[in-house]
Amino acid sequence: MDCEGKHISKIAEICSVLGNNTMETRVTLRAGRNNFGNFNATELEGCEHLNELNVHFNQISEFRKDTFINFTNLKVLDLSRNNLMVFKSGWSSEFMPLSITTLILNGCPVDTAAIRNYPKLSHLRKLQMLRIDGLRDNFDIGKHTNMLQELSLSGLYSYSHCSIPHISNWTFKQLVSVVKLNISACNVRSISAGAFEHLKHLQILDLSYNRKLGFRSMENISYGLQFTDIRSVYMSYIHTTFGLGTSLLKQDLCYIWNTSIEEMFIAGNRLMSFETNALILLPDSLTTMDVSDNGLVFLPYLLQTSCMKNVRKMFGALQHSSHYPSRYIVEDTDDGRQGCEERAFSSCPYMHEAFLMKIAANKRPCNYIQPNLRNISLETDLPKHLEFVDFHESNLIYKVQINFNITPHENALKHIDLSNNVFNIFTGEYGPFPNIEVINVSRCYMVQIGEKSLNYPSLKILRLDNNYLGDQLADSMRSNIFECLTSLKCLNLSSNGITILHRSTFAPLTNLTDLDLNCNNIGNLDIMLPSLSNLLHIDLHVNSLHALARNMRAGLELNARKLNSTFEIDLRNNSLDYSCENQDFLNWLYEHQSNMKTFELYVFRLSDGRIMGATWFQKEISHLEGTCRSYTLLIVLCCIGISSALATVVGGVIYRHRWKLRYLLFMSRKRFFGYRRLPDYTLIENYRFDAFISYAEDHFRFILDEVIPRLEAENVSLCLHQRDFLPGNAISDNIIHAIQSSRKTIVILSEAFLRSKWCMYEFNMARMESMYSREDQVCLVIVMLEPVPNNKMPLEMLRWVQENSYIEYTHEPDGNRMFWENIVLAIK
């Protein structure tokens, strides 16, 4: 429950809320900076189940003995920055629950005029961690505190204070179980040789920010650490920032050889060098070395880095850095001669040359260098297990133009950070680094990289940002610098003055997922290739892009679908054109807003020069299509529509009068190319047949058994297409000739008749003949052989049936006799 700095005047207000809730899990109450003042057990009712209580900076000056009487589960109690007189003689801690394992008391007032002692905490037999201000007296908090594992006397916090000028052999003799000891920023000036000898379980020692301690006490410190279980030593900033340069001598590191140190931090000590062969004394257990913020120079010790054979991490950034002059007063700097102080005589047995030669032989390929030897080989090996190297902003100024063979070839180096140095030309080849994964050479003023300089097939992350590679990448003949980076996943080329990029430059990067091109001057980007099948994230903010090429958009969408993922682009601070020519891209951008990083910050440039934001774009994009619509296309479509309408009307008229037109066409052809009537031709026509019978093949038996016998018995001559059509002539010609050669055309109407194309042709030609050639004589007779629904008749036939009489066939004897009589009558 976080109630810190909430201006709550009484802690009872919080405890009453907690008391109304059943808490079965671990409960922490942070109630610092509320100005509670003193409180008693009654006000804490409801908070008894707390596991952690933080009431720092609340103007508390005292506690009653029964204040925490019911707090049986309390493990952590923070009373720091209150007005408790914890260092006053006779101050009682009896109010604290016996269950406490962590106690924080630093930042409480110290009465310099009174006798000061550490508070007695004997009753806290479970206490494991204590944070309190440091006094110059021996550390004594009472008996029965042998469970204490972590002690912090640090004065590094702004509200804490610590002053222990000298650490003697008895200062921490009581801490038999301590594992972590923090005495940073405690104004320590000297340490006795046996100060830490009794701390058998000590694993972490922090002596940082004791500006007047210096390396002169390091021999004494390391002597006592031989008898501990030490793992980490923090000795950063134990030298004044503005003193003379320092050096670590063999006698400083002499007893270090006999320890189990794994991490060593000596940053910010104006360290310029190690004495030759001193690195041999570093223990084999060492895995992490921090020499950052020093002023290391080239001396033979650099050829002995392989002596740290198990080092995995090397921190060496900020070499030769300048510092603000205001720190000179803050650090209470002396006359600055600390770095030149001579060491006292040392009787350490491990610094003799014979012993050093023996150790070096056992640490192969560790090089032992003979004292005062001038002719030294510059060849050296990297520590075999070194994985991480950080020397950023270290004032390294070189033109890397030579090839350098790194040994051993099977080194373990994975991460190199050389950023903020000066390597303006990098055309040499350094390697091999078979396991390298990260290289950072950003802000190195690079203008040129060799075609094979980045020969690191295992590399996954490459930072080349804030250089000057734009001109090289714009030259297609010199831009193929990534050919060997087949495993690269992340490439940062931001702030390189890039204007043009070629597809071939990125073709080898088959595993590339992230590409950072921000803060360049790219106007057109079209680098997507099938080989970039894993590319999903592109940072293009602060460029000169007006749009994103269609090929890039399609490629990113394809990659996202194939990898079952999403792509992301950053197009902030570009010159995105809001115009009709850019409509395709703008619509795509609107559809993929969720794929745009911080889309709400995008801006769009209108044709009149105005700049509009993303909110305006979201509202107006729906109107862009109407604004950009082409009227030329509309006119063309209207013309096509009108032409289609006219064609439809003309087609409809032709279709409606199709039979008439076909009949007239046949008659015209006959008139001009066939038989022509003579001027004295008599009006009384002599027909060859009395009737042309039009029927469907389905009713051939009816014609054969009924029609022919009955009508020909009445001397009616019939024309039947199966009997009287002239072989070899067109069917249509035979039909029209039969109609014109017969006095009547008898249509035997049925549903089968309607399904026959030629039957309908015979009907329509007979209808046309009746309408246009027989004057007032009707030559078409309909015989309804069976009932035919109106909805199945074509419009022409339905109209004819409705406007003209027809004869219905029936099987009823009287009706049947009348039927045949009517047909004969109709024909004659």
From TrEMBL:
Record domain TIR: where: 687-827
Keywords: Glycoprotein, Immunity, Innate immunity, Leucine-rich repeat, Membrane, Receptor, Repeat, Signal, Transmembrane, Transmembrane helix
Classification via Pfam families: LRR_8, TIR
Domain of life of the native organism: Eukaryota
Statement: the UniProt record of this protein carries the keyword Transcription: no
Membrane-crossing segments per the record: 631-655
Membrane topology label: Single-pass type I membrane protein
An example Gene Ontology CC term for this record: plasma membrane
Name by which UniProt lists this protein: TIR domain-containing protein
